[in-house]
Structure to design on (438 residues):
């Protein structure tokens, strides 16, 4: 079995697949089209199948129907299947399938962020115990080889921060909203029309998808156990075009960012829409692209940019993992290894950053003074104030210097309770103000 023993050159390697949808079909195509190059590079001919699906009767372009099965045992229990590629998604029954594959000594490649961000440490332990390999490059940012760069190229670089735009759907929506003043609903509809957003976009626009990817990236970057439950996240569905216009006027763009950093020895990982200074490297990332900025004292800033989704893009990462498995010996320093440096998770309230706050107020004498008093009480200082409109629905936009998250949250709760304040205030963080960017 691979991992337990490096296969002799020339031995054909059988790849079984769990799933044959958008990514699975692209993986099969890539394996068939790239067969000669793969054999030349790895010394092994790869054989494809069996392939688990729910409905083997449905035609899939370019896929030999005789490879398809709805019986998981045909992939999981077949000793000739040396590598199991999991591209079916979901946590159940996938978790059980991967446990079974690893337990019998097969190596596993998965593109499943939900699974890895919940059960990654457990599955990596199972792989170690079985002497097999578990690889998951495609689970975070699809084609961008960020996990390989963190695990191999930057292993000794002591990464201090990973800041990313790791969800293409939200980046597309925010780019649209910023470009033409489209409302959130209009931009989402356009993203759905172009295939950048699912019919049910909740995971993307609510921030959960980005949180899963950031948990995975932070685990690798900081050699720590970070699960999705350790990552507080916010989405973009409460933003209005007005916020992007205000941000623009203040010299920022708004992006949904994942920010993972070491904070006095603890790990802080969060996802939220942030004001990004126009000169910041992440500000230029538009449309559905993903980008990850890796910072360390030794290497300063390294940014990786590329497509974060799509069948072919994701298949490219899956293939890279297969090749890594073929080239890796058990016991080498790259064998699985989610080394646990024992770093605790930082309490979210203790994380400092600068803030933007927009609130609707009745334009009456003393409103601003009352708001300013609350900030002063909470030890937060105001950098700039812009008031627009008048009457009962004036808009007050404030940018605050760096302060603690818990102080800001208390201030927002008190401001919301003021008689002059209408509706829900919008609070955003400013990147490069103690969070990731500096
Ligand atoms: N699409 C992307 O751009 C992208 C990017 C990065 C990562 N990923 C990840 O890659 C994975 C696959 O995504 P996808 O877009 O390819 O999904 P998809 O198009 O929905 O394909 C899922 C495949 O898995 C099969 N399947 C699902 N549940 C099954 C079950 N319980 N038993 C047997 N077969 C089952 C489906 O069978 P049927 O064909 O019979 O329905 C289908 O072939 C997910 O973890 C996703 O998060 C996707």
């Amino acid at each position: 079995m691979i991992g337990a023993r490096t296969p002799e050159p020339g031995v054909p390697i059988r790849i079984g697949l769990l799933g044959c949808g958008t990514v699975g079909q692209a993986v099969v195509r890539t394996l068939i089209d790239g067969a000669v190059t793969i054999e030349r590079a790895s010394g092994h001919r790869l054989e494809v199948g069996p392939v688990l699906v729910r409905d083997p009767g449905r035609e899939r372009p370019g896929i030999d129907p005789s490879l398809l099965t709805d019986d998981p045992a045909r992939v999981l229990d077949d000793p000739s299947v040396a590598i199991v590629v999991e591209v079916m998604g979901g946590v159940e029954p996938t978790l059980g399938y991967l446990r079974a594959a690893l337990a019998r000594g097969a190596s596993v490649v998965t593109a499943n962020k939900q699974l890895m961000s919940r059960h990654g440490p457990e599955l990596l332990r199972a792989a170690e115990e079985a002497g097999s390999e578990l690889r998951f490059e495609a689970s975070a940012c699809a084609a961008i080889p960020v996990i390989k760069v963190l695990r191999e190229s930057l292993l000794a670089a002591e990464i201090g921060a990973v800041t990313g735009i790791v969800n293409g759907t939200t980046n597309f929506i925010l780019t649209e909203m910023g470009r033409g003043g489209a409302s959130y609903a209009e931009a989402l509809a356009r993203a759905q029309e172009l295939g950048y957003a699912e019919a049910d976009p909740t995971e993307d626009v609510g921030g959960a998808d980005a949180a899963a990817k950031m948990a995975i990236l932070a685990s690798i970057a900081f050699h720590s156990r970070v699960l999705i439950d350790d990552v507080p996240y916010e989405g973009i569905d409460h933003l209005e075009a007005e916020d992007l216009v205000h941000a623009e006027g203040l010299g920022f763009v708004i992006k949904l960012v994942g920010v993972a950093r070491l904070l006095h020895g603890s790990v802080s990982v969060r996802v939220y829409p942030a004001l990004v200074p126009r000169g910041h490297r992440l500000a230029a990332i538009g449309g559905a692209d993903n980008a990850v900025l890796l910072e360390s004292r030794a290497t300063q800033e390294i940014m990786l940019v590329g497509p974060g989704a799509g069948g072919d893009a994701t298949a490219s990462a899956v293939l890279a993992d297969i090749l890594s498995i073929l080239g890796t010996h058990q016991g080498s320093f790259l064998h699985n290894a989610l080394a646990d440096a024992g770093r605790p998770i930082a309490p979210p309230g203790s994380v400092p950053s600068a803030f933007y706050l927009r609130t609707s107020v009745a334009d009456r004498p003393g409103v601003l003074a009352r708001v300013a008093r609350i900030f002063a009480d909470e030890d937060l200082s105001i950098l700039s104030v812009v008031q627009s409109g008048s009457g009962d629905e004036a808009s007050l936009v404030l940018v605050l210097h760096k302060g603690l998250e818990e102080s800001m949250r208390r201030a927002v709760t008190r401001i919301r309770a003021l008689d002059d304040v209408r509706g829900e205030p919008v609070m955003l963080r400013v990147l490069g103000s103690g969070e990731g960017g500096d």
About this structure: Residues 19-24, 52-55, 87-89, 93, 111-113, 138, 142, 309-310, 314 surround NAP (CB under 6 Å).
